[in-house]
Protein 1
Amino acid sequence: MISITPATRDDVVRFYGGLPGHSIRALVALDDDGEVLAVGGIAFSQGYWVAFYDATEAFRADRRALVRALRAFRLLTEDKDLVAEIDDTFDGADVLLRHAGLEHSHEGIYRSCRSCRT
């Protein structure tokens, strides 16, 4: 079974082969052997919280795990205004972004404005 947990420094290094050049808050999907199948979260860049998600095909094929990850992502970001750029190479990216609580803004950009809601 795939588990969704807060990412550790080691998880990020094992998945990407190194650390990003900026601070992130992330979740990981781990299989039973501890292999990192996906990393997703937010990074603060140029005054914006930017949503990101990278996953293996094995993770993308497990819809239940994806739903659990989306729920955890929404909890992680419930108080943040977000921006994300759609990945046109990922079939269904627009649906994933909408389920993550973002709305299409313009030209491949999705946004959420949690602080705008009453």
Protein 2
Amino acid sequence: MQSGDLDEGISGTLNAAGSCTLSLAPKTQRQRWKVANVAISGTGDQDLDAVVYVAGRRVAGTFSGNNENVPMSATLTPGQSITVQWTGGTPGAGVRMDLVGSYDVARGGGEAP
């Protein structure tokens, strides 16, 4: 089994309603992610709200979806994701989520994240 540090991120832009939803998930059928922290950020001086979901379940909400860290202990298998949904921001502003933890890849294939 191959393993290593997980450091995945994704960026997006708030739509005309001031909201955005971003998700990250294991990339192959043989990967398993162990997520220790979700970092949430936004550009500008925004008063964003953000909600974090793991495999479809709400696990955290923030009153400021900008420059927040959400510590957790979540294991994601293929088909599961971590999603952050921002609301209440300035349309066109940028948002980002970053995951930190570790990953495993079962024997037989799969690429490191």
Protein 3
Amino acid sequence: MTDRKERTFNNGNPYHGSDKVSNSHLVGATDTDYFYFFCPECKGSQILQILDYTIAFDEPVEYAPAFRVKAKRDFKIAFELFCPECGLHDYVNIANIGWQGGLLANSPSME
């Protein structure tokens, strides 16, 4: 895979999530076909607001093309999240590169 130049938002600051949203701390659900992230700091299912997003990259398939034969492109979308109840402010990425299948417990980041 080639080095990727990622587009930025957040005034050029990094947008990788903190430990509060890593390692299965950030969960969510759908009600219809919309996905909602739940605040990892609040009790219950307090929905996080999505303040901003960026398409960090969107390129032709380079990552594991033999394994991902139906992938149309490689992409990563970064979301800026906020909880109006507790004030949590964090980031999360959704991508189709990296961990591609199997059990979450076996993910390299969960070891």
